[in-house]
Design a protein that fits this description.
The chain is mainly alpha-helical. Helices cover 58% and strands 4% of the residues. A hairpin with a 2-residue loop joins β1 and β2. The protein is flat and about 80 Å long.
Length: 530
């Protein structure tokens, strides 16, 4: 059956691709040049979305976090800036009307979730060196861990492998490029190599008269200039026959970009996200190019045209060459989306060991074995995994139970429950507490913390406004201040400060400071629409 790309003529395909690139570029803020801006909001182009969705997309594409670290929020709790009752209110939408018995206390689901926030129960557990370090709670932890061993099912190795594969498959081309996948799985440095090349070419092409030796052939645009010069480089990142390949590329950057997407096998429905990921790999340069592409009257843009399509055409040519070479070298498969997903599914155990090795989670002896097998797909891996399953996994499961026991001990102490009483609690209650904790991962804490944090500001502010609204307006007190000659508002900026101070010094002029670049229209509703 013919696809849309088969039916469309070349110019229609180029036009369609330009529309996709325009949408992909939404995640890039176009504020530029920085000489005319004192601030830069990297999520400016996403301001039309709800706050939490904007933060999620910022995390997906820019790897940024829209919330403070949890330990900072916990410091605010300790200092009184965040109040526990505000936390309780913020948690109401998540809490269930359920209780368990720990020691002699009845503990609610709400109390456990609140302790997750205030005590850091959901932070990644780090197993200490029990054999080398003294731990006064060791006996209690072992007792609780033995209780949990009877009821708590720790994920098996097969479950963990399945989870890693499923997470990787769902992330590929949505929050993970094929280049990143190779780096995370094979230990390559493709992303950094591409970034280095793009920085080199962008800095040379986008120079605005500062370089002593200007880049030649810029009149035809970034893509044409790159094509002419890069085709003369003797060695380009180890890419075989790179000079001939670059010289033979089509004249239209749209055609090169489409060709690269098809050679990488990026599904049509994922292309917008995939191109967004490529742009946000270098958001500064991409932002400048986006601005230049939209400012057609800018003299440097008229002289040396550039746009996101040209930028992406070059970037994805490097990506397709390096990804395909790495996949052939290490895995003997084409560097295409469907072949990579099939590899993860068909060689899931091997894939798991490779990922663990690159992440630094394998013991040294197993890391050496993986390095020895790195260029051998499907050969010898089962032997390594069999030993790993019998040698390492039981220790990991025991460590997981001890980690759960430590969390329960911390929870008990925060609720005033003695450790001995906690260890004597029913196993099913201990299990339920752990399940509540694990169902509320730290990645979900940010919105709750923020609501509680903002409530600490909203409450006194709204109280002051209500109180002021109830005051009588008549009978101005004697000695009220004289009306100033003028009132003026200035940005909170060191450039404005000298001017407004001098203005105040020459007479009774009143000035106000305002963070103008933080201005945002908001609608805030108290209670039931009041």
């Amino acid at each position: 059956m013919a696809t849309m790309n088969d039916v469309l003529d070349p110019e229609s395909r180029r036009m369609e691709l330009r529309g996709v690139v325009r949408l992909a570029g939404e995640v890039i803020a176009q504020y530029w040049p920085m000489r005319t801006f004192v601030h830069h909001n990297p999520l400016h182009s996403l301001e039309y979305l709800p706050f939490e969705e904007t933060v999620r997309r910022g995390k997906q594409f820019l790897n940024g976090d829209g919330y403070l670290p949890s330990d900072v929020y916990r410091d605010y709790v300790n200092s009184g800036r965040i109040r526990l009752r505000h936390l309780e209110i913020a948690l109401q939408s998540l809490t269930r009307d359920q209780q368990i018995t720990l020691g002699s206390r009845t503990v609610s689901h709400s109390e456990v979730l609140q302790a997750c926030l205030t005590e850091g129960l959901c932070s990644p557990a780090r197993e200490p060196l029990d054999d080398q370090l003294e731990d006064p709670d060791r006996d209690l932890i072992e007792r609780i861990a033995r209780q949990l061993e009877r009821v708590l099912e720790t994920p098996s190795l097969d479950d963990r492998i399945r989870t890693v594969v499923e997470d990787s498959r769902s992330s590929l081309c949505r929050s993970l490029t094929l280049s990143h996948w190779c780096d995370d799985t094979l230990g390559t440095t493709i992303v950094q190599s591409i970034n280095d090349q793009m920085i080199k070419w962008c800095s040379a092409f986008l120079d605005e008269g500062h370089a002593a030796w200007a880049m030649p052939d810029r009149d035809g645009g970034l893509y044409q200039a790159w094509k002419r010069l890069a085709s003369q480089e003797w060695s380009l990142l180890g890419i075989a026959d790179s000079r001939r390949k670059i010289a033979a590329l089509p004249d239209y950057p749209e055609d090169v970009l489409l060709e690269s997407l098809e050679l990488l096998g990026i599904p049509v429905e994922l292309r917008q996200d995939y191109l967004s990921l490529q742009l946000t790999a270098l958001p500064g340069w991409a932002g400048f190019i986006k601005w230049r592409g939209e400012e057609r009257d800018y003299p440097w843009q008229q002289a040396h045209p550039v746009g996101l399509v040209k930028f992406l055409a070059i970037r994805l040519w490097y990506a397709r060459e390096l990804v395909q070479a790495a996949c052939r070298d290490y895995l003997d498969i084409p560097g295409r989306f469907e072949d990579i997903t099939a590899y993860m599914q068909d060689y899931s155990e091997e894939y798991y060991l490779r990922r663990q090795r690159i992440a630094g989670h394998l013991p040294a002896l197993y890391a050496e074995e993986v390095d020895r097998l790195a260029h051998r797909k499907g050969q010898g891996w089962s032997t390594v995994l069999t030993r790993y399953r019998t040698d390492v996994v039981p220790r990991q499961q025991a460590a997981s139970r001890r980690g759960a026991a430590r969390r329960l001990l911390t929870l008990g102490r925060s609720l005033g429950i003695e450790g001995v009483q906690l260890a004597e609690s029913q196993a099913h209650d201990l299990k339920q507490a752990i399940e509540w904790i694990e169902a509320f991962p730290e990645s979900n804490h940010g919105p709750i913390w923020l609501k509680a944090f903002e409530a600490g500001y909203h409450e006194p502010l709204i109280g002051q406004l209500i109180e002021a609204s109830r005051r009588p307006t008549g009978n101005i007190e004697a000695g009220s201040p004289i009306r100033p000659y003028s009132q003026s508002v200035y940005c909170i900026d060191v450039r404005s400060e000298p001017f407004r101070r001098h203005f105040e010094a020459v007479g009774p002029h009143e000035t106000f400071g305002f963070a103008g670049f933080f201005a945002a229209f908001i609608r805030y509703r108290v209670g039931n629409g009041t």
